[in-house]
């Protein structure tokens, strides 16, 4: 699960007298560039081409950007628990109360609360800065997680579980904040930003692949609350490390007059695409668990789903090493089309063979189109979000994914219950086809809007 033209407006070119281009580094020494001075922390960035040394791959050049490694380490620590919390909550609540229905309802409530609260948290981040908002928001979410553990441990009424888990909705979108930093640091260098977005998507896949496995191990090996507690410790540690890297933080936009990202041209169809893509993820998870259970191998479902995430992770890293063939507006529908085409493979594998190993291979291949789709989509979000509201724009995209995951899970479960687990693989295929239709319609509207602008410019000229 997935991490997306040049983000934001291009900064005004610096004065040659005040900001000369640095001399090219000696190939023998290839020194790292000096870190920026505190006074220049929020100054417009020069193109990353003038700040990063030559490296063996685009990722070497990417992490030569001063401060990039430090905030990436903190962000990865904070992002890993995102794949742990829901699994830990289900294991903890179901084990204590004996009800998977209650556990599912509690986690669904937390998901719904996150969809409502996350854009507001992101708006505060844009206005006041990442460090000033992310740390207190994380502490509040951590209190919600601790309250959930205490309520489960002490046998509190069921309604307290819903209230406690809903309080965790203030958890900041650390992936979005990391992408916002890359967009700030790499202004004017779309190739480097493409590599950064590809890395972020691969990191998402890695965390959502390892998080559930780690949570299940901790809860099963030690005690049911261990996954939630360890996840909370990783989250606050990662956010503190991330927030401490102030030199790479985008400047806050306290008095921006930019409209909501939802109202920006091209954003509504893009957010609908994220909603449909989320339905792919949510339905695939439920249907695969049901299919594995029907084959008598329910415990293998996690490993099978991990293969899909692994395929996306590898594809994301490889995608970051190649230069996109054309602008993201044209590339995005093609990536969605590839995702829809490859999602026929799990359906065919389940229908024609009924073999779990064959299905696992089909999911591995099908996952390889997910990362390019998400990378190009996030690039478009960055380009179409008004300046000063970047965290909010990317959080809206994540909110769309979360809403789609919830809806896809419900639709997948409905088909599995009333038809079969094999037929359930038609749900992610239908969701991907819907995303393709929306993406194609959005591309047509964008092309018409661009042609209208060109015609208007020619008329005024």
From TrEMBL:
<feature type="transmembrane region" description="Helical">
    <location>
        <begin position="269"/>
        <end position="292"/>
    </location>
</feature>
<feature type="transmembrane region" description="Helical">
    <location>
        <begin position="76"/>
        <end position="94"/>
    </location>
</feature>
<protein>
    <submittedName>
        <fullName>MFS transporter</fullName>
    </submittedName>
</protein>
<feature type="compositionally biased region" description="Pro residues">
    <location>
        <begin position="1"/>
        <end position="38"/>
    </location>
</feature>
<feature type="transmembrane region" description="Helical">
    <location>
        <begin position="298"/>
        <end position="319"/>
    </location>
</feature>
<feature type="transmembrane region" description="Helical">
    <location>
        <begin position="358"/>
        <end position="381"/>
    </location>
</feature>
<feature type="transmembrane region" description="Helical">
    <location>
        <begin position="331"/>
        <end position="352"/>
    </location>
</feature>
<feature type="transmembrane region" description="Helical">
    <location>
        <begin position="422"/>
        <end position="445"/>
    </location>
</feature>
<dbReference type="InterPro" id="IPR011701">
    <property type="entry name" value="MFS"/>
</dbReference>
<feature type="region of interest" description="Disordered">
    <location>
        <begin position="1"/>
        <end position="59"/>
    </location>
</feature>
<feature type="transmembrane region" description="Helical">
    <location>
        <begin position="393"/>
        <end position="416"/>
    </location>
</feature>
<feature type="compositionally biased region" description="Basic residues">
    <location>
        <begin position="48"/>
        <end position="59"/>
    </location>
</feature>
<feature type="transmembrane region" description="Helical">
    <location>
        <begin position="229"/>
        <end position="248"/>
    </location>
</feature>
<keyword id="KW-0812">Transmembrane</keyword>
<keyword id="KW-1133">Transmembrane helix</keyword>
<dbReference type="Pfam" id="PF07690">
    <property type="entry name" value="MFS_1"/>
</dbReference>
<keyword id="KW-0472">Membrane</keyword>
<dbReference type="InterPro" id="IPR036259">
    <property type="entry name" value="MFS_trans_sf"/>
</dbReference>
<feature type="transmembrane region" description="Helical">
    <location>
        <begin position="133"/>
        <end position="152"/>
    </location>
</feature>
<feature type="transmembrane region" description="Helical">
    <location>
        <begin position="101"/>
        <end position="121"/>
    </location>
</feature>
